[in-house]
Amino acid sequence: MMQRIIPRAFSGKHTPFLHTSYAFQSTLAQPIQENEPVLPKMPPFDYTPPPYTGPSTEEILMKRQQFLNPAVFHFFDKPLNLVDGKMQYLYDDKGRRYLDAFGGIATVGCGHCHPHVVDAIVNQSKRLQHSTILYLNHAIAQFAEALASKFPGDLKVVFFTNSGTEANELALMMARLYTGCNDVISVRNGYHGNAPGTMGATAQSSYKFNVVQTGVHHAQNPDQYRGIFGSDGLKYARDVDEIITYGTSGRVAGFIAEAIQGVGGILELAPAYLPAVYSSIRKAGGLCIADEVQSGFARTGDHFWGFEAHGVVPDIVTMAKGIGNGIPLGAVVTTPDIAKVLTATNYFNTFGGNPVCSAAGLAVLQVIEKENLQQNALDVGSYLKNQLTSLKDKHEIIGDVRGRGMMLAVELVKDRELKTPAKAETFQAMDQMKDMGLLIGKGGFFGNVFRITPPLCFNKEDADFLVDVMDYTLSKM
Q: How many Å apart are CA 81 and CA 34, to the nearest integer?
């Protein structure tokens, strides 16, 4: 008699796995053979992508290897050729559906091809794609006003860029010009970009080249899982005080950090750390820069910006990724006083605030508000985190479950006491989960962390499917 796994999306509770293997799920109905193991079904979704008629996966891979950046890598033994997307789902060239729990690296917040965002892009493209900031246009002005309204205090002046790297480069330059100092402090394991200035602030060897990177000091990472002081943020903050005392003239340009390290493995800074560090930096004449490239735009659920969870107000905030739902767009938001520093000469950005990008950015803010995506990120994200935490009790390979909202992580280790990174097992599990229809990211310095940053329209049925697939995969390792 055939045994079947009943997915939680339909049973309402977790059902133990009954089989030793899965049949790969297709988006098309298939006849079920007797004794054939069945993969838990994805939640139903009313969309069928149009047939794909483009080049084959092999042809694309060959062109990529021949014509694109050789440093670019791809996930999986057999790379995916993704050709269509709708909300929290992606489709490959064969029409197979995947649940996207990576969101284009925390970028797709509203959902793939959200109709309101797409309409805004198309309508603006039909009217005016590009002119220059030297002329007036309503799109950039309206978007700047709407974006500024999301910030506390005097953070009201917006500079638009094309990426997070560019936003962080501008923020660091502004801090140095405003203070007249060169020294910047960042946090180990942080990632801020791959241009000269931001590469200096980045503190992971995997993303650094042997080029001149001056004036940056890297403080101890307030890592609550692997850090030497656990969750004691004040003890980590003392390292910043010592850097100021022993490594600088006593004056600094600023401090830059992510509230939750994204590339670094979804690591939340220890409690009480940021308030203490911000105080020390300001006493030394520096500015505090919040890198919200990944944690911003309602992703953490309980707040619109990651820094808000720490009870601090930065002097400069940088952002990208979720700001445009996939459109190349970034921004720096600061105070009028700090913004004036760029009037000493000319600062110009050809594409920053482009009408099409601005229309997309404004549409994103409207969707987040109208569809209550911040509350959904909190509710579904909390539900998912609880379910993932229950897996930790079941699977010894899970060393840590962390994050907030829809910015979550599961860290795999070979030994919980030693916290030995399970890098190979992480890659193997990702590949197997992909074959079951689930896409998640990978990160952390050791490459042993599942990064879970889905579109904010993710629902509890999606969360159940994710946990069931991960549960099965880890049970076989």
A: 32
At position 442, the amino acid (one-letter code) is K
Instruction: Tell me the three state secondary structure of residue 271.
Output: coil
Contacts of 462 (CB under 8 A, 6+ apart): 42, 43, 88, 99, 101, 380, 454
Output phi, psi for 309, to 5 deg.
-65, -15
CB atoms under 10 Å from CB of 145, counted, come to 12
Q: Tell me the β-bridge partners of 260.
A: 268
Burial of residue 380, with CB atoms counted within 10 A of its CB: 0-12 exposed, 13-18 middle, 19 or more buried = buried
- In one letter, which amino acid is 101? A
Helices (H), strands (E): how many in the chain?
14, 18
Residue 198's φ and ψ, nearest 5 degrees, are -70, -30
CA angle 326, 24, 389 (to 5 degrees): 65
Dist CA 419 CA 430 (whole Å): 20
Nearest CA to 293 out of 322, 325, 257, 270 is that of 322
Residue 12 CB neighbour total at 10 angstroms? 9
How far apart are alpha carbons 202 and 172 in whole angstroms?
12
Instruction: Count other C-beta atoms under 10 Å from residue 387's C-beta.
Output: 20
Q: pLDDT per residue over 338-383, tens digit each?
A: 999 999 998 989 999 999 999 999 999 999 999 999 999 999 999 9
CA 80, CA 89: separation in Å to the nearest integer?
Answer: 14
Instruction: Report pLDDT digits (tens) over 18-34.
Output: 333 333 343 444 444 55
pTM exceeds 0.70 for this model: yes
